[in-house]
Design brief:
Elements lengths: L6 H18 L3 H17 L4 H57 L3 E9 L9 E8 L5 E13 L13 E3 L2 E3 L5 E2 L6 E2 L6 H8 L4 E12 L4 E10 L7 E2 L9 E4 L2
Antiparallel strand pairs: 1-2, 2-6, 2-7, 3-4, 3-5, 3-8, 8-9, 9-10, 9-11
C-alpha cells in the first residue's frame, strides 16, 4: 500500500462501493457481492488486516440493519393488512346492524278484519269489507291498493289476476291504526252468486275469494308489494288465509 495514502480516503472509497451495492438491491445477494467486492479492493490495495476487518465489519452492520429494516417493513405491512381486514369487518358489521335496524323498524302491512256486508248467508250480492293494518313500528305511504272478490273452484287453482277491478291509493298508514276501506269501496262480487254456486260453497267445492295487493313505501324509501288472499264458504265466520306456500298470496316482495 502506498505510504502517502490517507486512511480517510480509503475508508471513503470502501463506503462508496458498499453504498452503491446496497442501494442497487436490498437482497442478500447484492449485500454479499458488496462484501466480496470491498474485500477484493482491500487485498488489491494491500490494506492492513485491521483495515480489512474494520471494513467488513462495517458492511456486515449495514447488511444487518437492512435486514432489520426489511423485517420491520414486512411486519408493518402485515399489521396494515390486519388493520384493513378489521376495518372491513367493522364496516360490514355496521352495515348489517343498519340493515337489521331497518328490518325491525319498517312498516309491515297486513289484511285484517275481513267480513261480509250482506242481508243473509244466501245474499247473492254480498260485499266484503276489510282493513289494512300496519303492524310495523313506522309509517308507510300506500301508493296503490288493488283487489277483487269472486267465487272460484278451489284454492290451488286461484292465481294472481292480471287486472284487479277495484283500486284505492295514496294514503298514509301509521302503526296500530288500521285503514278501513270505506263502504263505497267494499269489494263487490264480479257476478251474483247463483244457487249452483251456493250448493258448491256448502260442499266446499267452491269458495269466495278476496284477493289483491298493497304497494307501499316505508319511511326508509324502500318500496314493497304485499299480496293478500283470503277465502270463505259463504258462512258468517272468519275468512281463512291462503297459504303462501301454495300461491303468491300473503307474501311480500320488494318493488324495485
Amino acid at each position: 500500500m502506498p505510504q502517502d495514502r490517507d486512511w480517510v480516503d480509503y475508508a471513503t472509497l470502501c463506503a462508496l462501493v458498499a453504498a452503491f451495492f446496497a442501494a442497487a438491491s436490498a437482497a442478500q445477494q447484492a449485500q454479499t457481492l458488496a462484501i466480496e467486492t470491498v474485500e477484493a479492493i482491500a487485498h488489491a490495495d494491500g490494506a492492513s488486516e485491521r483495515q480489512h476487518l474494520d471494513t467488513l465489519a462495517a458492511l456486515k452492520i449495514a447488511r444487518d440493519a437492512n435486514a432489520l429494516s426489511k423485517e420491520t417493513a414486512d411486519r408493518q405491512a402485515r399489521e396494515t393488512a390486519s388493520a384493513l381486514a378489521l376495518s372491513q369487518q367493522a364496516a360490514d358489521a355496521a352495515a348489517k346492524a343498519v340493515e337489521n335496524s331497518v328490518a325491525t323498524e319498517r312498516a309491515r302491512i297486513f289484511l285484517t278484519n275481513v267480513a261480509f256486508v250482506r242481508t243473509n248467508e244466501r245474499d247473492p250480492n254480498p260485499r266484503i269489507s276489510f282493513q289494512i293494518a300496519n303492524l310495523g313500528k313506522t309509517s308507510a305511504l300506500i301508493t296503490e291498493l288493488a283487489y277483487e272478490c269472486q267465487v272460484s273452484t278451489n284454492i290451488s287453482q286461484h292465481n294472481l289476476p292480471i287486472n284487479y277491478k277495484s283500486h284505492a291509493a295514496m294514503m298514509v298508514i301509521v302503526p296500530d291504526v288500521p285503514y278501513t276501506v270505506p263502504n263505497n269501496l267494499a269489494c263487490v262480487m264480479d257476478t251474483p252468486i247463483s244457487d249452483t254456486d251456493f250448493a258448491a260453497l256448502d260442499a266446499h267445492k267452491e269458495a269466495i275469494f278476496l284477493t289483491g295487493y298493497v304497494k307501499f313505501q316505508d319511511v326508509f324509501g324502500e318500496n314493497f308489494i304485499k299480496y293478500f288472499g283470503v277465502y270463505n264458504f259463504a258462512k258468517d265466520s272468519d275468512f281463512f288465509g291462503i297459504t303462501p306456500f301454495a300461491s303468491p298470496f300473503n307474501s311480500e316482495v320488494k318493488d324495485d
